[in-house]
Amino acid sequence: MTDHADLLDSLRGRLIVSCQAYPGDPLRSPEHMAAMAASVARAPVAGIRAEGVDDLRAIRTVTTLPLIGLWKDGDGDVYITPTARHARAVAETGVDIVAVDATGRPRPDGGRLSDVFAAVHGSGRLVMADVSTVEEGVRAADLGADLVSTTLSGYTPYSRRNEGPDLELVAELAGWLSVPVTAEGRIQSPDQARQAMAAGAWSVVVGTAITAPAAIAERFAGALTSVLDTGGHCG
Ligand SMILES: CC(=O)N[C@H](C=O)[C@@H](O)[C@H](O)[C@H](O)COP(=O)(O)O
């Protein structure tokens, strides 16, 4: 377990970058995501989060940074590493931590969350429980999650839908849990990342704001459009 404690320690107070391309994006390939991860790894980041067994295998060849893996599959409500089978496949790619949907919603195979956690632990990896509420986080920790992440806040019909990160959930979870809490989801700026740490996060995961050029360009383009809309154009 010392290795696992060292791994968690290495993430403390630091940034994890999620390298995932949206469906349809030209960057959506294992080669591109591996290059993205290698590029990000030139910065002092603590770890990489990524999706899909092919991407994870490719990323594992380009960096020795701690790797958090998941497999998004199916079109049901629970799509982040939904079953024990998915969890084992992700673990086999060589990741250090497997991220799992740990909401209370029914899983596509009717399986139990504890079975998915057992599959991860049976493979010698740590579990990151992706949750949307404090109740889900408490349950996940009770079931043995090694870290709890706010990933799914705003993505379940019953959770808060903030435009930015759910810092309230970060603070609540940090107050309730003895396992590390990761702030994840809609963190758009270094300032918000700092606020998440101040709210009690162990680590901060940022994806779109760093690794999705289309979304970043859209924000900039949108900002210019709104200047025109408000009469700021002087031509
Ligand atoms: C809800 C869901 O499926 N979240 C996913 C989980 O891995 C990813 O699509 C997000 O990009 C990741 O959580 C990082 O968040 P953001 O990209 O907002 O920084």
Automatic annotation (TrEMBL):
Alphabetized UniProt keyword annotations: Carbohydrate metabolism, Isomerase
UniProt record similarity statement: Belongs to the NanE family.
Pathway per the UniProt entry: Amino-sugar metabolism; N-acetylneuraminate degradation; D-fructose 6-phosphate from N-acetylneuraminate: step 3/5
Catalytic reaction annotation: an N-acyl-D-glucosamine 6-phosphate = an N-acyl-D-mannosamine 6-phosphate
GO terms for biological process, alphabetical: carbohydrate metabolic process; N-acetylmannosamine catabolic process; N-acetylneuraminate catabolic process
CDD domains xref list: NanE (cd04729)
Function, in words: Converts N-acetylmannosamine-6-phosphate (ManNAc-6-P) to N-acetylglucosamine-6-phosphate (GlcNAc-6-P).
Tree of life domain: Bacteria
EC number(s) given by UniProt: 5.1.3.9
Pfam families the UniProt entry points to: NanE
Name of the featured protein: Putative N-acetylmannosamine-6-phosphate 2-epimerase
Molecular function as annotated in GO: N-acylglucosamine-6-phosphate 2-epimerase activity
Entry's transmembrane regions: none
Gene name of the record: nanE
